[in-house]
TrEMBL record:
<dbReference type="InterPro" id="IPR053896">
    <property type="entry name" value="BTN3A2-like_Ig-C"/>
</dbReference>
<dbReference type="InterPro" id="IPR007110">
    <property type="entry name" value="Ig-like_dom"/>
</dbReference>
<dbReference type="InterPro" id="IPR050504">
    <property type="entry name" value="IgSF_BTN/MOG"/>
</dbReference>
<dbReference type="Pfam" id="PF07686">
    <property type="entry name" value="V-set"/>
</dbReference>
<keyword id="KW-1133">Transmembrane helix</keyword>
<dbReference type="Pfam" id="PF22705">
    <property type="entry name" value="C2-set_3"/>
</dbReference>
<dbReference type="GO" id="GO:0050852">
    <property type="term" value="P:T cell receptor signaling pathway"/>
</dbReference>
<comment type="function">
    <text>Negative regulator of T-cell proliferation.</text>
</comment>
<feature type="domain" description="Ig-like">
    <location>
        <begin position="5"/>
        <end position="112"/>
    </location>
</feature>
<dbReference type="InterPro" id="IPR013783">
    <property type="entry name" value="Ig-like_fold"/>
</dbReference>
<dbReference type="GO" id="GO:0005102">
    <property type="term" value="F:signaling receptor binding"/>
</dbReference>
<keyword id="KW-0393">Immunoglobulin domain</keyword>
<protein>
    <recommendedName>
        <fullName>Butyrophilin-like protein 2</fullName>
    </recommendedName>
</protein>
<comment type="similarity">
    <text>Belongs to the immunoglobulin superfamily. BTN/MOG family.</text>
</comment>
<dbReference type="InterPro" id="IPR003599">
    <property type="entry name" value="Ig_sub"/>
</dbReference>
<dbReference type="InterPro" id="IPR036179">
    <property type="entry name" value="Ig-like_dom_sf"/>
</dbReference>
<dbReference type="InterPro" id="IPR013106">
    <property type="entry name" value="Ig_V-set"/>
</dbReference>
Length: 207
């Protein structure tokens, strides 16, 4: 059978992903055909034919020259495919298959792609009659992050409005506003990536 590592597989945008598969019980895979597919076996990511023949040219165009086959442990049935310069479109299900004259099996895994946003900024708008409006902006996130206002005690403060847009690279750009009626309080804009748990915090103290 084919096994894959347990746990959540996460790669960063413009980083590297490592997709590993292992034959169990341990046996050599050097003479086997090894394939990686994206999705429902329709998109070939990489093909290795037994005997040391790597056939990268048959892969889908978006993966050509972006993959690296790690075969140092093939004698023990372990192979790893590295995907370089990861993009958001690389996220999703993958399948790794081993095939021999009398053996064929596969296992699946799911790759999540994440991007930690750029600097978070708070802007104070022109005062209005019933308070002061503040706006928080943060871009470059994937997937869509959690975004909220918090006071000096760490309590969530309901926002006045919240919106987002996505750029050509599918990265999220967030905007959130708040009407402050007490102009002397401290307020923090909190943004968190739901996949990695990484966060950005920016505070402003109004006097």
């Amino acid at each position: 059978m084919v096994t894959v590592p347990k746990g959540h597989l996460v790669a960063r945008v413009e980083g590297q992903a490592a997709l590993s598969c292992q034959l169990s019980p341990l046996q050599s895979a050097e003479h086997m055909e090894v394939r990686w597919f994206k999705g429902d076996n329709s998109q070939l990511v990489y093909l290795y034919r037994g005997g040391g023949h790597e056939v990268n040219g048959e892969a889908a165009p978006e993966y050509v020259n972006r993959t690296e086959f790690v075969k140092e442990a093939m004698g023990e049935g372990k192979v790893t495919l590295k995907i370089h310069n990861v993009s958001i479109s690389d996220g999703g299900p993958y399948r790794c298959s081993f095939k021999d004259t009398d053996f064929s099996d596969a296992a699946g895994m799911n790759l999540s792609v994440a991007a930690l946003g750029l600097e978070t900024q708070i802007h104070v708008q022109v005062p209005v009659s019933d308070g002061l409006e503040v706006e928080c902006n943060s871009g470059g996130w994937f997937p869509q992050p959690q975004m909220e206002w918090r006071n000096s005690r760490g309590e969530v403060v309901p926002h006045s409005s919240k919106s987002y847009s996505q750029d050509g690279a599918r990265l999220f750009h967030m905007k959130m506003t708040l009407l402050l009626r007490n102009r002397s309080e401290s307020i923090m804009c909190y943004v968190c990536n739901p996949v990695t748990g990484e966060e950005k915090r920016t505070s402003i103290i109004l006097a």
